[in-house]
């Protein structure tokens, strides 16, 4: 692997790990070995040449990310050492790069005594991430004191992979997989959890870092980002008071978690879990995760699917919700909702389903704990293929709300729903998890007709500007023995069996997934 390849892979690693505005350059042994073998780091001879050359881009990418990652790796290796001075750090970095200490000091300084190249590289990287990705790195101010050069990588030496695994227990007790939790709420719940289970549930090193006022906030942000990437795996770690558990830790898969969906057939409510109807009497007992409230399930309206409501831990101002409640267990909430609702449906088991919304800022104290600020941006419209945020090229969603920036293929861009390129998009706003969606090519199986331009002439069975009906033309070849495409379209809408050979038709797949 060349240094240029290593540099690119490091940048990709950092960007793939980002899930919000909060960002750190920390990297530990386990993470860097996913990119390259540790012993091969010393083979990059250009890191023993003046570092100002790393400011020059290669394929439009500055070449200092690899160096920064190596510096941060050296800092992470010091966390288990009793000696954490600047001199001890330099010894570690010299061993990794096969340098003499006087050589390292010369590389740190460069040619400009007043503005050392080490400082220029770190501040250039900080600006690069903010300008291109809206990622904010917290690094120290420049000083004139001893340790001025090593303070940058040492500031990024936060939790390592093993430290973060402990927090999967906290995630499973408090949240769902992929739940969009505001950072301030997450921080409050984390601090409460730590105050109750501090010594038993986290590593000794994690405890020391959280007691460091300079690193506590960065560590909290790091745990938040780790939660946003969490896939539900729980780590069975036997706590040892004297040392950090060895890697890899034994893994246990958390049971599958899915939302309960409330769908109305006219006025009749039906509840679904994992695509199957569940009995109304058992809805309050179905959730296999710990909510912040009991005997109440909140359902908020879906942005994209009419008459459908997803279960949620929060109520939001300006959103229509349904609240399923056991009046015997929650008498205060029930009394309030009896007087303030948009509709009441009494269930057979004595529970009540209230239709509810609130617009004003003054929330009644009895419901105050159920309210939370929602993400200030939403996706509206577009042609959505499934419940995952997957949209067709040329028919992407509109983004409604306050937007800090949009990242397309890991770079800021100006987004237009009609001509957006294919790829992954991230909408990044302060204090929230990134909102992601993907635009995919529509392929060759469909021909879309814009209603203002063309439609079907049913006499000629063709499309033209003078037409009898609007719609979408499906164009697919099939044998006489296969089900005609129009029958497959009808079957998809009626939830009937579909022919496997037509399953790759993107519109039929969209119908099926929308009913999943």
Give structural attributes.
single chain; 516 residues; alpha+beta; 8-stranded antiparallel sheet; 4-stranded mixed sheet; globular
Strand tally: 22
Major β-sheet profile: 8 strands, antiparallel
Q: In DSSP terms, counting alpha (H) and pi (I) runs of 4 or more, how many helices?
A: 15
Spatial ordering of strands, largest sheet: 7-6-5-9-8-10-12-11
Beta-strand fraction estimate: 15-25%
How large, in whole angstroms, is the Cα Rg? Answer: 28 Å
**Average of pLDDT:** 80
| Oligomeric grouping of the chains | single chain
Report the principal-axis shape.
globular
Distance between the termini: 45 Å
The amount of helix comes to: 25-40%
Could you say which structural class the secondary elements and strand pairing correspond to? Answer: alpha+beta
Low-confidence stretches: 239-257, 444-449
Can you put this structure into words, describing what you see?
The protein starts with a helix and ends with a helix. The protein is built from 15 helices and 22 strands. The protein has 516 residues and is an alpha+beta fold. 30% of the residues lie in helices and 17% in strands. The relative contact order is 0.07. The strands form 7 sheets. The chain has an 8-stranded antiparallel sheet, covered by helices on one side. It has helices spanning 3-17, 29-32, 65-77, 86-97, 101-109, 117-133, 151-155, 161-165, 168-174, 183-201, 204-210, 216-229, 331-339, 485-493, 506-514; strands at 22-23, 136-137, 233-236, 250-253, 260-265, 268-273, 276-278, 296-301, 308-312, 321-325, 343-346, 352-356, 377-380, 390-392, 398-401, 405-408, 423-428, 435-440, 446-447, 455-457, 462-464, 473-474.
């Amino acid at each position: 692997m060349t240094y240029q390849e290593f540099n690119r892979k490091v940048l990709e690693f950092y960007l793939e790990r980002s899930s919000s505005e909060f960002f750190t350059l920390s990297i530990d042994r386990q993470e860097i070995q996913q990119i390259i073998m540790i012993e091969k780091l010393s083979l990059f001879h250009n890191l023993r040449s003046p570092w100002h050359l790393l400011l020059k881009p290669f394929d439009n990418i500055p070449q200092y990310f690899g160096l920064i990652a190596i510096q941060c790796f050296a800092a992470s290796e010091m966390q288990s050492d009793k000696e954490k001075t600047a001199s001890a750090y330099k010894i570690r970095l010299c061993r990794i790069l096969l340098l003499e200490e006087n050589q390292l000091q010369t590389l740190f300084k460069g040619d400009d005594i007043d503005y050392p190249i080490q400082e220029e590289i770190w501040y250039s990287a900080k600006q690069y991430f903010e300008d291109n990705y809206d990622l904010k790195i917290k690094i120290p101010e420049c000083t004139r004191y001893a340790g001025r050069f090593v303070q940058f990588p040492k500031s990024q030496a936060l939790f390592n992979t093993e430290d973060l695994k402990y927090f999967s227990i906290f995630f499973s007790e408090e949240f769902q997989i992929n739940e969009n939790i505001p950072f301030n709420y997450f921080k409050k719940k984390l601090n409460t959890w730590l105050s109750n289970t501090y010594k038993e549930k986290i590593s000794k090193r994690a405890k020391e870092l959280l007691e460091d006022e300079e690193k506590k906030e960065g560590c909290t942000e790091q745990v938040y980002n780790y939660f946003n990437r969490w896939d539900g795996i729980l780590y069975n770690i036997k706590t040892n008071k004297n040392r950090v558990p060895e890697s890899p830790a034994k893994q246990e898969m958390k049971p599958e978690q899915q939302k309960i969906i409330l769908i109305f057939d006219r006025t009749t409510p039906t509840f679904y879990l994992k695509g199957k109807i569940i009995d109304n009497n058992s809805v309050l007992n179905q959730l296999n995760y710990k909510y912040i409230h009991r005997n109440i399930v909140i359902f908020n309206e879906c942005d994209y699917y009419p008459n459908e409501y997803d279960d949620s831990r929060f109520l939001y101002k300006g959103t229509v919700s349904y609240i399923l409640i056991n009046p015997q267990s929650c008498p205060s909430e029930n009394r309030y909702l009896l007087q303030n609702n948009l509709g009441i449906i009494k269930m057979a088991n004595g529970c009540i389903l209230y239709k509810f919304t609130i617009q004003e800022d003054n929330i009644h104290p009895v419901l105050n704990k159920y309210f939370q600020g929602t993400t200030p941006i939403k996706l509206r419209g577009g042609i959505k293929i499934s419940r995952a945020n997957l949209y067709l090229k040329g028919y992407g969603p509109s983004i409604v709300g306050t937007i800090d920036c949009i990242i397309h293929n890991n770079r800021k861009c100006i987004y237009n729903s009609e001509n957006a390129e294919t790829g992954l998009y991230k909408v990044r706003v302060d204090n929230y998890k990134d909102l992601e969606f993907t635009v995919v090519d529509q392929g060759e199986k469909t021909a879309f007709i814009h209603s203002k331009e063309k439609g079907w002439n049913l006499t000629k069975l063709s499309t033209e500007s003078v037409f009898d009906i609007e719609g979408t033309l499906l164009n697919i070849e099939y044998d006489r023995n296969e089900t005609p495409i129009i029958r497959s379209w009808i079957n998809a809408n009626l939830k009937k069996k579909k022919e496997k050979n037509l399953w790759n038709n993107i519109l039929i797949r969209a119908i099926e997934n929308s009913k999943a």
